[in-house]
Predict the 3D structure of the following.
Amino acid sequence: MTSYLIRRAVYGFFILVLVNLLTFALFFFVNSPDDMARAQLGAKRVTADAITKWKQERGYDKPLILNTNSSGAGVVTNTIFFDKSVKLFVFDFGRSDQGRDIGYDIGTRMWASLAIALPVFVVGLLVTVTFALLMTLFRATYVDFWGVVICVAMMSISSLFYIIGGQFVIGKLWSLVPISGYDEGFSAFKFLILPMVIGVLGGIGASTRWYRTIFLEEISKDYVRTARSKGLPELRVLFRHVLQNAMIPILTGVVVVIPTLFLGSLIMESFFSIPGLGSYTIDAIQSQDFAIVRAMVFLGSVLYITGLILTDISYTLADPRVRFE
C-alpha cells in the first residue's frame, strides 16, 4: 500500500508539472506580458514607457525561460517562469497584478467557501443517499416512479433558476434572509442559510439518480438474496448490506470532491456576494488579473490530485478486500 501511494504521488507530481507547463504556455506564449499590460492599463493606445513600467512593477520585464544576461543559477531563477510558475510548487503564490498578497487572500477567503460548501456536501450526501435508499426500498411502485420524475425534473432545471428564484421568493418577497452579503462569526449564518439550501436542492436530482442506480444493481446480487433467506428485514438488508457494499462507487464520486470544497462555488458565491475563493476567481477573470487565475488553477490541480489519492485510501477502509500492490 505504501509503495502504491508513493507511485501515485509521483504520478500526481508529474501531472502537476504538466498542468503547470500548459498553464504557463497559455498565459505567456499565447498572451504576452505586453498584452497583459495593455489589458490592465485599459487604454487603446498606451505608451511604451507605461507598458515597461507596468511590467517592471510586477516582475514581467524578465525573460520568459532563460536569462542569458545572468550567470550561474540566475540564468534559470531570474526569469518569469521561475518567479511565476516554479515558486507555486512551494505554495509561494506571490502578488496579484493589483498588488495584493495572493497567499493571504486564499488563507482568509477559503473559510467563507468552506462555510457554504461543507454543509452543502454533508447534508446533500445524507439527503440524496436516504432518498435513493427509499426509492430502492419501494422500487417498481409509485414512490419510485414519482421519485424518478422529480429527480429528472430537478436535473433539467438550471442552477441559476434555484439561485434567482430563491433570492426573489425567500429573500425579496418573504424577507426571511438577506439576498446577498456576508458577516463574520455566527452572524454569517443568516447570509449562508439560503445558499446552503439552494446548493442542496440543486444537487438532489443527479446525485439521487446515481445512487439509486448503484443500489438497484447491488440489491439484485446473491448476497442480498442470502440475507433475505435468513429472515433479515428489508431495511436492515438495505442499510447493513446494500449500502456497505455500494460504498466503493459512492466513494469514487464523493472523496475526490472533498479537497475541492476549499475552492468554493463560482456561481453561488458571485450571486450572493460571499467573499470566498469562487468569487475571488470570478473577480480575477473579470479584471484580467492573470496572477490570481494562475494560482487558482494550480491550487485546483493540487487539490484534485490529492482527492484522487484520498479516494484510493478510502477504498481500503470501506472494503478490506481491496488491496493495492
